[in-house]
Design goal:
Radius of gyration: 19 Å
CATH topology: Glutaconate Coenzyme A-transferase
Number of strands: 12
Distance between the termini: 60 Å
Largest sheet: 9 strands, mixed
Order of helices and strands: EHEHEHEHEHEEEEEHEE
Amino acid sequence: MKKVYPDARAALEGVLKDDMTIMAGGFGLCGIPDVLIEAIRDSGVKGLTIISNNAGIDGAGLGLLLETRQVRKMISSYVGENKLFAQQYLAGELEIEFNPQGTLAERIRAGGAGIPAFYTKTGYGTLIGEGKETRQFNGENYIMETGLFADLSVIHAWKGDTEGNLVYRKTARNFNPMMATAAKVTVAQVETIVEPGTIDPDHIITAGIFVKRMIHAPGAQKRIEQRTTRPRLAA
């Protein structure tokens, strides 16, 4: 089966629909599938539930989908960089399910591993734990969290072969690998695509069996959310 598609629109054709759940990889603006996000925006689908560590920033990343009011609900751990996100939430236009960051990561991993639920100490006795099942293990209190599984995952990789085996580069190896396993369909944008057998098997992070479709996305824009500098010391 041919996995490499000519562009993002073609790769998402027949997959997108209103009211679906989409996982979007990346952390801040690092390793986000920006080309695929733009194609989702251009498709006009609405009522989306987005599972992502955060919502990008105003005017970039998932912030583009907030601008067009295509998102109904966010399942996230951090939203502090997006003013529009806060405005829509406070106005009652956007539903948010907050997660501690480690809990969100484990919920996604669990969903990809076929684990329906797990117990964690994190959040017990707080607003996070309200209404959730609790249990004691060895005298310690835990809350139950459910695994997450999406209709579609859109991810970004540094290198991949035409069979869908993927490698991520440095801190862009954040939520992308676990999200690749936790959806009915995973579509990857890849900076460099090579022939099968070119990548050292020991370097492969996501096996091709999890990736249904791919696009070539060279020259990915590497944005920096906040640039912090200090004056150089005089010689």
